[in-house]
Amino acid sequence: MTDARRESLHDLENAIHQIEDEERTPAGPTTNLVLALAVVALGLAALAGALSLGIGTPERPGSGTWPLLIGIGLVGLGIALALRFRQDSDAEAFTRNSAVVAAGLGTMIVFVAVIETIGFELPSLALMLVWLRFFGHESWRSTAIVSVGAVVAFYLIFVAALAVPIPHLF
Predict the structure, then answer these.
(1) Is residue 90 a contact partner of residue 27, using CB atoms and an 8 Å limit?
(2) Domain chopping of the chain, boundaries
(3) What is the pTM for the complete model shown?
């Protein structure tokens, strides 16, 4: 192993230890309970959506079967979290970095809201551009290449090859 490589590995190990040693503020019981209730609410919304889609039967599952299973799982996990909201201390308090997660969720909501109107190609491209460049801090070159390549790949796989009935431009 070269000296430069050894020094680079040493720097990486030091950075990892620094991150691990940082003091993190744990979330309190109120935050834990609010998040548990949010998970239950999300699960209930998934269940309502599943029922509106039609769940079908075990022999002939409907389009709401998968959302139903996910909703049941979310409600169960949310209840489990709510029952343990005072014991859990490994959750971290919300910080400025939490805004990145909220922004990511916001972009997904916009994506879902517009995909039905203008197809998946442009919203997928915009979503990938934002996530790679602004959240992932990738270069503009790699952001453009990966974003366009992924959208083309999604189109070829899901629209051209599998004929999945999703809204698309072409």
Answers:
(1) no
(2) 26-93, 98-161
(3) 0.57
